[in-house]
Amino acid sequence: MSDRSGAVAPGGRLAPRVHGTVRIVGAGLLGASIGHALSALGVDVALADTSPAQLRLAIDYGAGRAARADDRPGLVIVAVPPDVTADVIERELVAHPDAVVTDVASVKLEPLRALRERGVDLTHYIGSHPLAGRERGGAISARADIFIGRPWVVCRDEETSATDLALVEGLALDLGATPIEMSPEEHDRSVALVSHVPQLVASLLAGRFVGAPDGSLRLAGQGVRDTTRIAASAPELWVQILGANAAPVVDVLDALAADLSSVADALRAPDAPGARRAVADTIRRGNEGVELLPGKHGQNRRFENVVVMVDDTPGQLGRLFGELGELEVNVEDLRLEHSPGAQFGLAEISVVPSAVRPAVEGLEARGWKIASTTND
């Protein structure tokens, strides 16, 4: 059941909205992470997984207990690979007819379409998807805090009851996420743009490093690391995700391919009329797109960066943050970059524009070397 009243539990902490027994099917990264977060709130978490080793590992790490045949869950969370999501949802709806069943698969339309074609009663099913994760999977990588501040899409329809909806949204809120209602179609188009195609682009770019001269790779800085970070993801899972959401992904890829072709044509003849403008417009449009991305607390705010040289010795980063606090400068974001062989790093600190001058003057007065200040 779910209680959105925000009651206070014994000991003074806020009582979870989800209570009773929660069954989680799939003890991998997302399933175990949800288990950790709910267990920390005092919720009874019953874990099930087809892999005995994965299940034991998740239990050993504290994500919950082993599910029992006599469990009567009020909420079932399906956290299995996309190619078996529909099968497991159907099985759980039959096995637990009084429970609300949700899943956390990254594609929403294909499982729903398969269930409808089978004639499954979906009255108590609500698809959902937390936009959270890590490059490495499995129970050993699970963490209770990966959902904090992240969107959690909830796909309701006309048959969804207010009580069932409140339960799934309560789950998201208990885990620190922000519930967002979308249709399955809208969800799949959205993740194609902001998740699935970026994964392919990162993988394609990182793939160009294979066979590259060592000297070239030694020049890699934080920019290329940021761009290719998600290329470390598991191929097996992404084959399933991309296959299940192929049409929206292809739409974005086709448009991106056309853009790449236009830039390549311009660079083949960089002195031709309009070529430089084509390149400049490409970079400018990227600037505009970045500005549309929500920042801290979901705000579209423009920050400036102060880049500080930090000695690579223990305690220096903590000292930097402490002195920024003394200067009453709020750090909106932070990125660290290390140069190979150098005995210092560069801390790129994002602050509101009005804080740039006091940050620079105050830090320099305390002996810090400012490498640069740049617009974000």
Automatic annotation (TrEMBL):
Keywords: Amino-acid biosynthesis, Aromatic amino acid biosynthesis, Oxidoreductase. Residues 20-296 form the Prephenate/arogenate dehydrogenase domain. InterPro entries: 6-PGluconate_DH-like_C_sf (IPR008927), ACT-like_dom_sf (IPR045865), NAD(P)-bd_dom_sf (IPR036291), PDH_C (IPR046825), PDH_N (IPR046826), Preph/Arog_dehydrog (IPR050812), Prephen_DH (IPR003099). Pathway: Amino-acid biosynthesis. Gene3D superfamilies: 6-phosphogluconate dehydrogenase C-terminal like domain, NAD(P)-binding Rossmann-like Domain. It comes from the Bacteria. Pfam families: PDH_C (PF20463), PDH_N (PF02153). Belongs to the prephenate/arogenate dehydrogenase family. This is Prephenate dehydrogenase. It comes from Microbacterium aoyamense. The lineage of its organism: Bacteria, Bacillati, Actinomycetota, Actinomycetes, Micrococcales.
